[in-house]
diphosphoinositol-polyphosphate diphosphatase (Cherax quadricarinatus), 240 residues
Amino acid sequence: MTDMVKARNYDEDGFVKRAACICVNEDETQVLLVSSRRDSELWIVPGGGVEPNELPDMAAIREVREEAGVCGMLGRCLGVFEDTQGGHDDFLKTKNSERGHRTSVYVLVVKEEMEEWDESKVFGRKRKWFSMEEAVKQLAKHKPVQSSYVSLLLPDRDHTTTITHSPSSCQNTITPPPPLSTIIDHQVEMVRQMELGSEMENDIKEDDTAESDGEPSKSPGSSQEDLSNGIVAEDAAADT
């Protein structure tokens, strides 16, 4: 389903919710871009609107299949990027009087390229592989926000000098499991706590056995004689 027939989905701040994938080869030296609907000589990162009740990562996978005709393995999320100018690659730009777009951007390693796909047949979309550097240059001509997040994959990029459109944390992403060493340390600590608990339980049983075999244990400074003397002394004081 294309953006032309989809209802726009907004977040709590009034931004249009979008998702996109930077489609790369295995070693992330090349990126796949698709031609613009408005101008087939311009190139864009495939992406589109997130449908109601759809997770951003699932929307990203769907959009690259529709726009670029590729499938693959979804990897890390680079962030959520704001474009306050609005306007995706379509002629709905005149309707973009909203605050703009927030796009969840993921990295997808391409595993399959279809010969034909939805938007190649409907809009004549083309796709083309570029080096990372060339893709950044191509996008900078008309999609500076997209250029900024593709540039995050450049191998020698200084991430401390970053981009004007700073990414925020991705939502609805899967938290990776803790390292194996952390899991092992946790299990060792659990075993140690269980052993300490068993030792304490045995000590309590031994104390109970000693009390049942002999005289009741006496707490320091509180013998029966002291207690009786205390009672007598209190009674005597009360009588006077």
About this structure: The beta strands are 16-24, 30-35, 43-44, 47-49, 70-83, 101-113, 127-131. The CA atoms of residues 228 and 234 lie 10 Å apart. The radius of gyration is 34 Å. The helical segments are 56-67, 118-122, 132-140, 144-150, 180-213, 224-239.
